[in-house]
Amino acid sequence: MNIEELYHFLFETMPGIGILVGGGLLVSVIVCLILERKTRKQFKNHEKTEDDWSLFDDDEEDEK
To answer: What is one Pfam family matched by this protein (predicted)?
Structure first.
């Protein structure tokens, strides 16, 4: 498969565009999860308030 066929598939066909969109969403979710974990590690001594919410529900296990 040469570059022209790959370009045609990815940018000029519906399945190719779907792969690009799906790949972009997957990469975005992975980056968001990694950044959220790093932020939680950096601010682990943050005092919890009523307005705080947890993406990973880690806090509920600590309270039990």
So the answer is: DUF6724
The pTM assigned to this predicted structure is 0.64
> Among all chains, which residue has been given the structure tokens 């296990």?
61
Q: What pLDDT digit, counting tens, does each position of 8-42 carry?
A: 999 999 999 999 999 999 999 999 999 989 988 88
The Cα angle at residue 51 between residues 46 and 53, in degrees rounded to 5:
70
Which conformational region is residue 57 in: left (phi greater than 0), alpha (psi within -120 to 50 degrees), or beta? left
Query: Do residues 60 and 54 make contact, with C-beta atoms less than 8 angstroms apart?
Result: yes
CA neighbours within 13 Å on the CB side: how many for 24? 7
